[in-house]
């Protein structure tokens, strides 16, 4: 935003635009790191497959329907990606004990190991960004992000 444009906006609007720029930068950097981590996980798969294994690592076994909802992917895409992940022995399916008709998906040990290895690069990039911050700054940043995420993205 150049000076002529910024003069047209209120101070609050200018702050909101600057916040938007910074959020876009964070999202872009995070996406680039996710793509690199996905390639490190398995370069033969689409990055969306890594989103699935990352979700399973974080939240555990679930149904394909719940996985599709949680990752904002359509059910057919999740099914296709899960089949590829199962074929490569990263994901396994088992009948749910409560309902013999249902199927739960989970990571195999190989899938878990590969996911953790792939995440190391992503985590090291984020940790490098905050390594010089004092504890109070890190705490404030974390609390502000938590407040933002809890109140605005539901």
TrEMBL record:
Molecular function terms, GO-annotated: DNA binding; DNA-binding transcription factor activity
Protein name: DNA-binding transcriptional regulator, MarR family
Domain of life where this protein originates: Bacteria
Database matches in SUPFAM superfamilies: Winged helix' DNA-binding domain (SSF46785)
Record carries keyword DNA-binding: yes
HTH marR-type domain boundaries: 16-150
One Pfam family from the record: MarR_2
UniProt feature coiled coil, ranges: none
Keywords annotated in UniProt: DNA-binding
Biological processes per GO annotation: response to stress
């Amino acid at each position: 935003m150049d000076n002529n444009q910024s003069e047209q906006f209120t101070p609050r609007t200018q702050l909101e635009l600057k916040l938007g720029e910074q959020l876009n930068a964070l999202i872009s950097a995070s996406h680039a790191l996710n793509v690199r981590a996905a390639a490190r996980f398995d370069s033969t798969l689409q990055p969306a497959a890594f989103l699935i294994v990352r979700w399973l690592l974080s939240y555990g076994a679930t149904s394909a329907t719940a996985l599709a909802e949680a990752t904002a992917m359509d059910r057919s895409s999740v099914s296709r990606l899960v089949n590829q992940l199962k074929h490569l022995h990263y994901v396994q399916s088992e009948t749910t004990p409560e309902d013999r008709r249902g199927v739960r998906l989970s990571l195999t040990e190989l899938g878990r190991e590969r996911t953790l290895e792939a995440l190391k690069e992503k985590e090291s990039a984020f940790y490098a960004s905050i390594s010089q911050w004092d504890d109070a700054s890190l705490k404030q940043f974390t609390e502000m992000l938590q407040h933002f995420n809890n109140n605005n993205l539901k």
